[in-house]
Design goal:
With about 475 residues, the protein is α/β, with parallel strands linked by helices. It is built from nine helices and 28 strands. The protein has helices spanning about 10, 15-35, 75-80, 200-205, 245-255, 270-285, 300-310, 345-365, 435-440, and strands spanning about 35-40, 55, 65, 70-75, 90-95, 110-115, 130, 135-140, 160-165, 175-180, 190, 210-215, 220-225, 230, 240-245, 260-265, 285-290, 310-315, 320, 325-330, 335-345, 390-395, 400, 405-415, 420-425, 440-445, 450, 455-460. The strands form eight sheets. The chain has a six-stranded mixed sheet with strand order 7-4-6-5-9-8. A six-stranded mixed sheet has the order 16-13-17-21-20-18, with helices on both faces. A hairpin with a 5-residue loop joins strand 24 (about 405-415) and strand 25. Helix 5 (about 245-255) packs parallel to helix 8 and helix 6 packs across helix 7. Residues about 145-160 have low confidence and may be disordered. The chain binds adenosine monophosphate (AMP) and magnesium ion. Magnesium ion (MG) binds near residues 292 and 345.
Length: about 475
């Protein structure tokens, strides 16, 4: 995309969602590269973006070990010790290897076995483990005894104890053994920079013995609402007033994303107040979000306020809800640039534009790598940081207007063939915030598609278990 995001030509025509994502990606990439990192204890790293690749300092598991309780043996010993009757063989038990207390004696010789517990190191000379359920132990001159000898200690000297294995023909060479390094080999790439540190990632990094990680510092985002009618919860609602939903839905969404929120309250539709607030926000935050005041007629406040402290682009985006969107860059101290998103005021439009544009921007700026591959025509587009799409089946006729993307709020059921069928939550006005409350996903009807019929495949953006992906 050769156009800059501030190209005036964007103001003259509708931008497609994809175009907007592409120019945003291009503008934000430079800022993402310069964000600071910090060291955090492993237990506090979940939800952060890893800032450095992790190369394994060791093999995991560190030694070849048993995956079952039983005996360790060389597979070749089974034939040598075969008994005349049944599918059985007999071996001599020379000691034990317990988890945390490995066998320190000599290597197993042919015809010998070692008691072993799950996770205990395999002794030299053994390649397989036979599980406890197939074993009978006995000591010559005593009756067969299937009980594990509780007094057996690691490093015992040789005993005369014998073990009889039942079902020998089912024993495979190498069975019930975890090879050293089979999960992670020493020197291999384990996690790349930009990975979101999930609980599984924390577990894997713990298994390498790492106590601290270098992560990207969480973003600090300043947020305020605009509008003379917008009233803070807890205050009496004046005539013509409306309670401030957007600052709270956005703050909640930002918290869920691990972002630090700087709540700057509600600003009146007044240029001076907006300019002061924007300057203050830029000085204290990595990104600024407002809602309201970007639709035609009102836009002048935000525009003139922003032009006083940075650069602004006002876009009309071919999407519903959420057509008007302002993007800008505020100038802060020492040449620092702070991106600004002015979201539309209608509460559903606020949340939908947050999901399409702000959330991917937060992920990119916060140091996360792309979540999906970039299309060839838009490398680096912010679309790669959007929440993944799933394909479902339309459960009703869904209408749209060609040339714009519609995001219907949807709920999912299973049909009798087990397919995921999605229907809308009901009324879809951009002020019907309860449609977001009911929604599990956004049904995405692409530009160029006027309607979808029942049974048609349809893409959805899953909103996640927290209600906002
Ligand atoms: P605007 O984009 O400022 O023209 O606002 C569009 C609609 O959204 C108007 O009906 C506003 O009253 C409403 N609105 C604006 N800001 C908020 C807010 N913070 N919470 C709830 N509704 C809002
Ligand atoms: Mg307004």
């Amino acid at each position: 995309m050769s156009l800059s995001c501030f190209d005036p030509r964007f103001g003259e025509r509708m931008l497609s969602v994809d175009e907007a994502l592409a120019v945003l990606g291009g503008s934000l990439a430079k800022l993402a590269a310069t964000r600071p990192t910090q060291r955090v204890p492993l237990a506090q790293a979940v939800g952060h973006a890893l800032a450095e690749p992790v190369i394994s300092p060791l093999d995991v598991p560190a030694q070849t070990n048993a995956a079952m309780d039983g005996i360790a043996l060389a597979h070749a010993s089974l034939a040598a010790g075969a008994l005349d009757e049944g599918d059985r063989c007999q071996l001599r038990v020379i000691g034990s290897s317990l988890a945390g207390h490995p066998w320190t004696g000599r290597a197993l010789a042919p015809g010998e076995a070692l008691r072993i517990t799950t996770g205990a190191a395999l002794p030299a000379g053994a390649d397989s483990v036979v599980m406890q359920e197939q074993l009978d132990y006995f000591t010559p001159d005593a009756s067969p005894d299937s009980m594990l000898d509780a007094d057996s200690q690691a490093g015992d000297a040789e005993t005369a104890e014998q073990v009889v294995i039942d079902g020998v023909s089912s024993v495979r060479a190498g069975q019930n053994v975890r090879q050293a390094g089979e999960d992670i080999a020493r020197g291999s790439d384990v996690i790349s920079a930009g990975q979101w540190l999930s609980p599984a990632a924390i577990g894997v990094l713990a298994s390498l013995g790492l106590a601290e990680l270098t992560v990207h510092r969480p973003l600090r985002v300043a947020i305020f609402s605009t509008g003379d009618e917008v009233t803070a919860p807890g205050e009496p609602l004046p005539a013509g007033g409306i309670y401030d939903a957007n600052r709270f839905s956005l703050t909640a969404a930002l918290h869920a994303e691990g972002v630090e929120v700087l709540d700057l309250g509600i600003l009146r539709d007044q240029r001076e107040a907006l300019s002061i607030a924007l300057r203050d926000a830029a000085a204290r935050a990595d990104l600024v979000i407002t809602s309201g005041g970007v639709s035609v007629g009102e836009a002048d406040h935000v525009r003139s306020a922003l032009e006083a402290c940075g650069q602004l682009a006002l876009w009309r985006i071919a999407m519903r809800p959420g057509r008007p969107l302002a993007f800008g860059v505020l100038a802060a101290e020492e040449g620092r640039q702070v991106p600004f998103f002015g979201l539309p005021g209608n509460p559903v439009a606020t949340m939908v534009t947050y999901l399409q544009f702000v959330l991917p921007a937060l992920r990119m700026l916060g140091g996360l790598g792309p979540l999906s591959p970039a299309p060839a025509d838009h490398p680096g587009t912010l679309a790669c940081w959007q929440s993944p799409r799933l394909q479902m089946v339309a459960g009703e006729t869904l209408r749209s207007r060609p040339e714009r993307v519609d995001y219907h709020r949807g709920r999912v059921t299973l049909d009798d063939q087990g397919r995921q069928v999605v229907t809308t939550t009901g009324r879809q006005g951009s002020g019907i915030l309860t449609s977001m409350l009911a929604a599990q996903c956004l049904i995405e009807i692409p530009a160029g598609c006027a309607s979808l019929q029942t049974g048609d495949p349809v893409m959805v953006q899953w909103l996640g278990t927290r209600g906002l992906s």
